[in-house]
Amino acid sequence: MITATIILGLIALILFVVWLVELIRSFGNWGISGIGFACGVLSMFLGFVWFIFLLNIMRVEYSEQNVSGVVYNARNNEWPLGNTSFSVRASENTYVSEENKSSFCLPSNSPYIKVVNEAAKNKKTKVSVTTEKIFEFVNNPFTCVDNVKVEYLND
Asked: DSSP code of 89?
């Protein structure tokens, strides 16, 4: 995916340079040639597509997060990479809204999957979830970044 993004970016850059050369060459005329116009339009379109690709493969977490509570909505072995996703809320009866929503993802080889599954089965078990800051490019938009740590809380 990263290689395709780089190639797409280079093609957009080459088309933009051709458009710019055509624009400069026709500076004294009233308009640019058909090839210059086509390269300009294509470079803008491919540049936009390239930007969308970059957004899909970039993972950014600006701050560390520390959440504790009960696990709910645990989903194991999700398609296509076998990730485990789960959510945490303060207690079993806590209303979940956009302000207090806490959702996490674990890669398929994470040592914390067992902790999440046990806590999801028993709502009396509380966990602490800590995430780290990240800035990373991933090969696949479905990839979970390994920045989540899950531990049992002692009551």
From this structure: E
Please report the pLDDT score of residue 136 as a whole number: 72
In 3D space, the residue among 108, 66, 103 whose CA is nearest the CA of residue 88 turns out to be: 103
Task: Answer whether 94's CB lies under 8 Å from 67's CB.
Answer: no
Classified as helix, coil or strand, 94 is: coil
DSSP state of 15: H
Strand partners, 69: 127
pLDDT digits (tens, 9 = 90+) for 64-111: 788 888 998 889 888 878 889 999 988 777 777 777 778 888 988 899
Residues with Cβ within 8 Å of 84's Cβ and at least 6 positions away in sequence, in order, are 74, 75, 76, 77, 78, 105, 106, 108, 110, 113, 116, 117
Q: Which 8-state DSSP code applies to residue 135?
A: E
The backbone torsions φ and ψ at residue 75, rounded to the nearest 5 degrees and listed phi first, read -125, 120
Bridge partner list, 86: 104
H helices present in the chain, as ranges: 2-25, 34-57, 113-121
Can you give the pTM of this predicted structure?
A: 0.60
Note the Cα 126 to chain centre separation in Å.
28
